[in-house]
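Re: export button greyed out
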Amino acid sequence: NAGVTQTPKFQVLKTGQSMTLQCAQDMNHEYMSWYRQDPGMGLRLIHYSVGAGITDQGEVPNGYNVSRSTTEDFPLRLLSAAPSQTSVYFCASGRTEAFFGQGTRLTVV
Amino acid sequence: RKEVEQDPGPFNVPEGATVAFNCTYSNSASQSFFWYRQDCRKEPKLLMSVYSSGNEDGRFTAQLNRASQYISLLIRDSKLSDSATYLCVVRRGATLGRLYFGRGTQLTVWP
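Workaround output, generated via the alternate export path:
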């Protein structure tokens, strides 16, 4: 039972580098989303998708891009990493409830 | 005003105690309500959905008051394993659509 799989689990980037956080789900969910979680801030929505080819912005989209070419995959791209993007990133999918991946702990130095 | 407000705690209770968490939401059109549990450095996991008539799952009872836009979670007979952060979650639609998370209430149960 894979559920939602995120890779990598940990990553350290230098300021200005780019990278892609991967997210895959095997539950055939239409809805997928990316959150970041910072101490004292709770979970904040970055981007979400209601199906292949359809994406939209959440409350903190700046500095991030997404695409949804298949139902299964929803990668999150950091275009030019900044220290302010140091956070824990969670991918989630679901119909009526959200199933979360294990998270990616990203540090930007 | 935030979509979902929770008392952050922390709540520190002995084993066997009863503890209640409260949550308010700002959008009266919200239709779906949940409590999630998040252990330290782990992903959030669904604890229970909250239904209009209230619902119970073992030691956990959830209540919804639409008129006051208020959600509660009651934990009876607390166990050490209940120590976690509890997230109140609201969605405007019945299905799909974005979820709004509270910042979470931290619970520590001590022996």
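The longest strand of chain A covers residues 42-51. The button fix ships in the next patch.
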